[in-house]
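In the previous lecture we treated proteins in isolation. Real proteins rarely work alone, and many bind small molecules. This record shows how such a complex is specified: first the sequence, then the SMILES for zinc ion.
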Amino acid sequence: MPVDTVVAGGQVVSSTGVRAASVAVDDGEIVAVGEESQLPDAAERVDASGCLVLPGIIDVHVHIDDMFSIDTYETATKAAALGGVTTYIDFAWEAWEGDLSLWDEPGTLQEGVERKQRKAADALIDYGLHGAITREDPAILEELEAVVDAGVSSIKLFTAYEFGLSYGFMEQVFEELAAIDAMAVLHTEEGSVCDARTERFQAEGKGDPPYYPQSRPDYAEAMAVDSALQLAQAHGTKYYGIHTTSRAAAEVIDRYREDGSLVRAETCTHYTTLDDSVFESQGNLPMIAPPIRTPDDNDAMFEYLADGTLDVVSTDHCGYTEASKVDVPWWDSKFGANALQTSLPVFHDEAVNERGFGYPFLVDVMATKPAQVFGMPRKGTLDPGTDADLVVFDPDKEYTIDAGDNASKADFSIYEGRTVTGMPTRTMVRGEWVAVDGAITGEPGYGEFLARERPDWRA
Ligand SMILES: [Zn+2]
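The predicted 3D structure, ligand included, written as tokens:
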């Protein structure tokens, strides 16, 4: 019996090496990796000569179809497919009342999970969910175990914004997460510092975009990382720091992190590839929280990715239109920017072409570690027996980033005009091609909810 597909003649990349090999896929799984002559016949042969074959990219931090994104699951997963992303993790929110809320009344986390699962009916790629706690209602402590058991094994907590939690309440959540072996995902900026500085800038009329990064300084990030990590370690809670931006914050993570410790962290593509000069050149478009920082912070992100203090590179994708970002003081602009479609080529160009990192590093921080950290054993590698999620990547293909090509509803790019060398040419999810040569070939509704395991970080 022939298998479904052989991707032949490429350089197959894992987190530990690169080798010339072909990949056989059948019934949605990788069945063998090796010399083509040793593989079974296939109904479809795809020539990957001159290309790399990577595990599908896993983006563990995206915002789709809620108050932080006008993208639908269909538009976001199309952008993902074109960008070589085969799985992403979005957020399921506990409904709250407030200026930023979509809701008129509070709701449960379970309702938030079901809401996102309904919205995801048009997904082209697989997705998971983080639960997000937005209120200091002790009822959440009773709810967490069932949500985690249902595959939402990471719970996000904020130290800033109207849904930021006090450390007193956070401690109770950490205790419960430790008891049920789930992980905490932390947005860490000291909210009172950011709020007070914002109010001061508003009073002083400092609404021009270059003031924005000064409103949320690196020390405010480092302070909150330190406080949240002290609490997490006091209770043996698995801690994942999202969107680390600065040397100051990474230094704190490094202090808490030892082999076997329950600390993991990410940075995002834009914190490695853009610096604060963007607020002069692009105004509010790259306004993201925490802010894009200095060239030294860019260097620090690579130093700490290289030494393993940071594990993962994500996008923090938020779908917004240009019109909702510009022509207002920065405090009235939307926070966030789209990047699902461009993250792999932009990060590749910076990490591999500019800074000389190898392909195994790229695969490690964008696929293998995200899967390990977030409990997805069928994802993140090209090991036989796992899901056939892969990317054919042409390292020589040049592309100049043009938001006119966006599949996202977002109509701008913070990388507009940047020429990158190296592009994904094909993306496969569980054995089906979802994007080929810049065109969508997947079907809305093909993507599945991924019930994630509780990851074993001690392994
Ligand atoms: Zn985010």
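Summary for your notes: The two ends are 38 Å apart (CA to CA). Residues 61, 63, 316 surround zinc ion (CB under 6 Å).
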